[in-house]
Amino acid sequence: MPRHPHLRLASLADLPQIAALLEQCRLTTGGVAEIIDSFHVAHSDSRIIGCAAAERHGESIVIRSVAVEPTCRDRGIATRLVSALLMRARGTEVRHAVLLSASAPAYFARWGFSLIPADKAPTDARASSEFQGATLTSALCMHCELK
Description:
Elements: E1 6-9, H1 15-24, E2 39-44, E3 47-57, E4 60-68, H2 77-90, E5 96-101, H3 105-109, E6 114-116, H4 123-126, H5 129-133, E7 140-145
Parallel strand pairs: 4-5
Antiparallel strand pairs: 1-2, 2-3, 3-4, 5-7, 6-7
GO molecular function, one term: acyltransferase activity, transferring groups other than amino-acyl groups
InterPro entries: Acyl_CoA_acyltransferase, GNAT_dom
Domain N-acetyltransferase: 5-147
């Protein structure tokens, strides 16, 4: 594998590999096809080894589906993917980034995300499928101002 895999926007043709990667990482695949244009992928040798999405809802994005193939972890791939999502959002009128994380709040704090009660997340973000499905999970809500 190259030291730095290439990042690019995802296309519908990437859907099978993205879904397989999310399943491998025990993340939901629900709604992925509908927001495929919100995904960035890391690929190496025609194989997707990482993905992340920024699902837009009004003035907010919901960061979701951050996954890296287990054999490729600890190489900065997720960091590059999340950075790309946030940079892309900052180039728009998006003001808030929100995410739900059951296991990595300290990881997302490096970008300025902080824990908030889920009911304090921006209303438009709470309408996302990610938040709707989270009512039965133990995920923590995190928020970051982008402007």
